[in-house]
Specification:
disordered N terminus, 4-stranded parallel beta sheet, 9-stranded antiparallel beta sheet, about 30% helix
Length: about 400
């Protein structure tokens, strides 16, 4: 079956279709509105974040070829809110003439960790030592070779810490690998890196080949989930920041990426950079750009996939701190006692400079339901901004001020 030709009138604004109805699609739709466009989304349900705000929704599954054809019909380009669309389905769409961005031969490097590691190694990019694991004996051999602790990873499907397990010792590593292998989950192992911190180099690339890079940021992880982003990364030497940007731009070109591209990095204790993960879509580490950069990652993604000239990526302030709002426990003292509307009211009363972005998602424990940005006029403010961001995010999630602040006193 061929893709349905466009029935849009001549001269109409281009149509971008996005697979996935999550918060990334929701915020991409916000950016598309400013460009006179409407984002079409493939959502699994009408209450998904993006489906709540765009009038052009296809309800279906990213694993169903007919649903993918429906969302792509008449669109100028098909892009992604997540990387979980089977490559073989995307290959069929491309063969039918659908403009897929990023193309499947690029996207596979964000879908399969082993494919990614092998390709990056072939390109000379710095990566942790790793190995494919087909048996616990191979895991033992890898652990002996690196003479140190290991990380056991599912090759496909993991995100926000899912499918990634830090082994306490060799016996624990064997248990993790055996569990994955028993469920027929392809497995790889990596060395646990002695790291100073985690960084993210966010760039964009157009089909024309134009590239643009935002300042390199520091990402703060807790239980495998990003909880804060500091832009730019405090104390990062200029030459190391430039090297991270150049590496991300080079990889985007080598892999054939179209759109926003995040290269998650380890900064080791000896000052080296190692590539951890890749994402070929707007990324959590780029949410600060909505308020702290001249062009947000969401507008840039729309520009890139439509092959518009890319926007200015300069920061508008010396420092921006982003904090994710993660759903609280739904029972016990951590359960919010007041509505989100009331929480917003109190937050704005205390912190009128808070830039809040909520996703319209049901609150569940640990679920990303929004984020908040704080802008600073001096990098010397970074610690205070981080503290305020953490206070605000916790308040929005839990309805509790961790410093005991009482609005009624």
């Amino acid at each position: 079956m061929m893709a349905v030709p466009s029935t849009r009138p001549p001269g109409a604004a281009p149509l971008v279709a996005m697979v996935g109805g999550g918060q990334l699609a929701r915020m991409t739709h916000q950016a598309a509105i400013a460009l006179g466009q409407t984002l079409r989304v493939l959502a699994t349900a009408p209450d998904e974040p993006a489906a709540q705000v765009t009038p052009d929704v296809v309800i279906g599954s990213h694993t169903d070829l007919e649903d993918l054809r429906r969302v792509a019909a008449g669109a100028h380009v098909l892009t992604f809110d997540h990387e979980h669309v089977p490559t073989e389905l995307l290959d069929k769409l491309v063969a039918e003439g659908v403009n897929v961005a990023p193309p499947p031969q690029a996207l596979v490097h964000a879908q399969d960790k082993l494919v990614m590691r092998r390709r990056l190694e072939a390109l000379g990019a710095p990566v942790p030592r790793y190995a494919e694991i087909r048996s616990v004996d191979e895991l033992d051999a890898f652990a002996q070779r690196i003479a140190g602790p290991v990380v056991v990873k599912a090759v496909r499907g993991g995100y926000d810490g899912r499918g990634v397990r830090m082994a306490r010792d060799p016996l624990h590593a064997r248990e993790i690998a055996a569990t994955f292998l028993a469920d027929d989950v392809p497995v790889m192992a990596e060395e646990q890196v002695n790291l100073r911190r985690e960084l993210s180099a966010l760039v964009a690339r157009s089909p024309f080949g134009q590239g643009a890079a935002w300042p390199v940021v520091e990402t703060v992880q807790r239980d495998g989930i990003c909880v804060q982003v500091i832009a730019p990364a405090p104390g990062l030497p200029g030459e190391l920041a430039a090297a991270a940007q150049q590496l991300a731009l080079r990889l985007a070109a080598e892999l054939g990426v179209v759109g926003v591209f995040a290269v998650e990095l380890f900064e080791t204790t000896d000052g080296a950079l190692l590539v951890n993960e890749l994402a070929m879509r707007p990324h959590n580490s780029g949410h600060w750009t909505m308020d702290g950069a001249r062009t947000s990652q969401f507008e840039q993604h729309v520009r890139a996939v439509l092959d518009y000239p890319l926007g200015d990526t300069d920061a508008t302030v010396p420092v921006t701190v982003m904090a994710n709002v993660l759903g609280a426990r739904q029972t016990g003292p951590a359960m919010p006692a007041i509505t989100m509307d009331e929480r917003l009211h109190h937050l704005f009363a205390r912190m009128p400079d808070a830039r809040v972005h909520l996703y319209g998602k049901e609150e569940r424990p640990g679920r990303k339901i929004g984020h908040v940005n704080f802008l600073g006029t001096d990098m010397a403010e970074v610690d205070a901004l981080r503290e305020r961001a953490e206070l605000a995010a916790h308040w929005l999630a839990h309805g509790q001020w961790t410093d005991g602040w009482d609005p009624h006193e």
